[in-house]
Amino acid sequence: MSQKTVIVYGAATLGQELVQTVATAGCDVILIDHSEEKLKRGLVRVEASLDAEIARWGLTTGEKRAIMSRIKSSTQVNDVTKGWLVIETLKETLEVKRQLFKELDAICKPETILASNSATISITEIAAECNHPQRTIAMHFQSPIAKVPLVEISRGLKTDEATYQAAVRFANMMRKTVISVYDCPGFVTTRIILPMINQAVKVLEEGIAPCEQIDTAMKLGFGLNAGPLALADKIGIDTVVFYLENLYTETFDQSYLPAKLLKKMARAGYKGVKSNRGFYRYGEDGLRTDNSGLKIEQLSQTNR
Question: What is the DSSP code string of 95-136?
Fold first, then answer.
């Protein structure tokens, strides 16, 4: 087990962003996913993201090469034993995450830290079937991970102090500000941002304004880095629906009932960046196509 190597489990959008950020911070990182196709697509998008930084003069080609040299990929679950920290970024479903943690708990050394990037599921619930729950913790990174200087850390009921302090040191090494959050679904950011995304979708549904203007209004009006609809695409529209439904089940708060259009788009396979179409269209490199925002007159076509 390397004291320098970090494992990221799951090659979807959050996994891609986390791998890039960890490697940029100077750590070796292994991206693990059962799908070779997802791994290849994920690494292509990491490279595209770094190329975009080069185009903005935020990175040199030499720095890009160094970052990519620190990233490896694997379809073998047993490769998790090569890292001191494993961070999962899988689908926001308790059963999926709990099963993975149970499997990781059985094959990783007792000192290996198991972290979940879950936004709406309690780490105590995820680790309920682990034999070493003291080394489990929640580390919620907010997309886009490379740009947002924040990580919410939540201990489970059995998480020990050593695990918490190691997670804080890792976050600080990545130049993130740590917010400690009580162990409850949603943390701070997710509980607040989801109703905003939900309302933005309802504004679009009602024909008040098209995508670009809704996002522009929220960016300029409130100083946001991304508008709520673009953020939904980045998170994944299907994931946003999962988040909302999970939080509604936990809280019975009506603000978490997903807008009809969100559910309709998720069912149609329009999941955002990862499917190349959501409220906007995206190329294979994950970058948004200009002037591609969903228009009011297209709403009836989202199931085609």
Answer: HHHHHHHHHHHHHS-TTSEEEE--SSS-HHHHTTT-S-GGGE
Q: Where in the chain is the domain with CATH 3.40.50.720?
A: 6-180
Planar angle of CA 200, 201, 204, nearest 5 degrees: 90
Q: Which of 110, 73, 116 is nearest to 96 (CA)?
A: 116
- Residues 11-54 have pLDDT tens digits of 988 999 999 999 999 999 999 999 999 999 999 999 999 999 99
Q: What topology is assigned to 189-297 in CATH?
A: N-(1-d-carboxylethyl)-l-norvaline Dehydrogenase; domain 2 (1.10.1040)
CB environment 178-217: b (16+ within 10 A), e (fewer): beebebebbbebbbebbbbbbebbebbeeeeebbbebbee
The pTM is what? Answer: 0.83
Please give the CATH topology (third level) of the domain spanning 6-180. Rossmann fold (3.40.50)
Token readout for 108 is 């990783």
